[in-house]
């Protein structure tokens, strides 16, 4: 089963030996495989209380993700001294999360609740592809951020990536992510099925691999687990451990103390972003792989468990802005200024205050009276 593909959960149930929960395509005309007749009352996600909880959970994730990630991008565009290489990559993370919140989660919620694909053939291919694409972009961007900070801090390279180079790297992450997510758009099928016993015809959106077996799904899931989780997090962990050791043992001159403290705080913040991503996605990756291996399909609560793990994974789409606001003074003050509807500033100063447009002649290239403006 492909990455983040909740639309295909029900298609896998047909392979379960002891499963007695009827989902839209799991029991479609397939008595030779699954002898149990459709009994929709066995599906716990059909209970009113569960459906209300799922609606509230997904709606909260969508709302927080839209507001938080939009604010992150808005701040980076608005404040001159926030336009740093690291912040460009953070904006790329926010853009990927916005894609999930707008293109994926609303459709996923509806499909989970009604067990029928109501959005046509094009969206059947695009929704799982878009979600997989955004997750690939996120982990690749986190890897790039870690390697860039590793290059600058561990090797004392004063010259960081310029704006043009950072944009090229961002473009490459999207291109590479598009290739990795491609199979979820290509090997997919939109069809209509007749459900016996209840005389019901429904639309189905599911994976359809070339050889018609589950082997390709297992291979893809294993590949994604390695390429999207194990390898990137290994690289990131190594980079941040080296950075932390370097900063811990570094004796910096007193005149660079502020810069050193900011660098250390920023590294903590970015490392925590990676930890949150890893923790949110680990249960989903493990569950998905065991599902493709037909190890847990016998549980009648399979769909609910899958949905809960999916919700946990999706929490990563709104947590990042909360971390920025909690651990970074620039973002925190910018968020507060936005919600207070205060006058738009030009830049954020080292103490977290603001300078308005009247200070244009004083503030040049993010500096004020020879002191560096605080930026991530």
Please describe the topology of this protein:
Elements: H1 9-13, H2 48-78, H3 85-114, H4 120-154, H5 163-186, E1 188-195, E2 200-207, H6 215-249, H7 257-292, H8 302-314, H9 316-327, H10 329-339, E3 347-348, E4 354-355, E5 367-368, E6 371-372
Antiparallel strand pairs: 1-2, 3-4, 5-6
Helix pairs in contact: 2-3, 2-9, 3-4, 3-5, 3-9, 4-5, 4-6, 4-7, 6-7, 7-8, 7-9, 9-10
Describe the structure concisely.
The protein has 376 residues and is mainly alpha-helical. Helix content is 62%, strand content 6%. It is built from ten helices and six strands.
What does this structure look like?
This protein is mostly helical. It has a single domain (6-372), classed as Rhopdopsin 7-helix transmembrane proteins, CATH 1.20.1070.10. It contains ten helices and six strands; from the N terminus they run H-H-H-H-H-E-E-H-H-H-H-H-E-E-E-E. It has helices at 9-13, 48-78, 85-114, 120-154, 163-186, 215-249, 257-292, 302-314, 316-327, 329-339; strands at residues 188-195, 200-207, 347-348, 354-355, 367-368, 371-372. The strands form three sheets. It has a two-stranded antiparallel sheet. Strands 3-4 form a two-stranded antiparallel sheet. A two-stranded antiparallel ribbon has the order 5-6. The longest helix has 36 residues, at 257-292.
């Amino acid at each position: 089963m492909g990455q983040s593909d909740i639309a295909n959960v029900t298609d896998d149930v047909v392979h379960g030996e002891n499963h007695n929960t009827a989902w839209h395509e799991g029991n479609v005309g397939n008595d030779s495989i699954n002898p149990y007749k459709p009994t929709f009352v066995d599906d716990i996600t059909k209970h009113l209380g569960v459906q209300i909880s799922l609606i509230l959970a997904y709606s909260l994730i969508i709302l927080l993700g839209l507001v938080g990630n939009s604010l992150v991008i808005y701040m980076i565009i608005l404040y001159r001294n926030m336009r740093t290489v690291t912040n460009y990559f953070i904006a790329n993370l926010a853009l990927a999360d916005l894609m999930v919140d707008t293109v994926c989660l609303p459709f996923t919620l509806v499909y989970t609740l009604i067990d029928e694909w109501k959005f046509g053939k094009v969206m059947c291919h695009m929704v799982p592809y878009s979600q997989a694409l955004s997750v690939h972009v996120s982990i690749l961007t986190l890897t790039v951020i870690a390697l860039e900070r590793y290059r600058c801090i561990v090797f004392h390279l004063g010259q960081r990536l310029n704006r043009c180079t950072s944009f090229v790297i961002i473009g490459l992450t999207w291109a590479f992510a598009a290739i990795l997510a491609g199979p979820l758009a290509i090997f997919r099928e939109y069809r209509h099925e007749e459900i016996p016993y209840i005389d019901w015809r429904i639309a189905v959106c599911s994976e359809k691999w070339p050889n018609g077996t589950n082997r390709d799904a297992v291979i893809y899931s294993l590949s994604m687990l390695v390429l999207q989780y194990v390898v990137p997090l290994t690289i990131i962990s190594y980079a941040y451990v080296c950075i932390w050791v370097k900063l811990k043992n570094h004796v910096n001159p007193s005149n660079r103390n502020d810069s050193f403290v900011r660098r250390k705080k920023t590294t903590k913040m970015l490392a925590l972003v990676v930890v949150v991503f890893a923790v949110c996605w680990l249960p989903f990756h493990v569950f998905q792989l065991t599902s493709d291996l037909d190890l847990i399909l016998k549980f009648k609560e399979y769909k609910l468990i899958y949905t809960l793990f999916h919700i946990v994974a999706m929490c990563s789409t709104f947590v990042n802005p909360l971390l920025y606001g909690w651990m970074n003074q620039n973002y925190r003050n910018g968020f507060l200024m936005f919600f207070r509807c205060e006058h738009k500033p030009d830049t954020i100063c080292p103490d977290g205050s603001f300078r308005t447009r009247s200070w244009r002649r004083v503030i040049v290239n993010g500096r004020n009276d020879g002191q560096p403006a605080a930026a991530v």
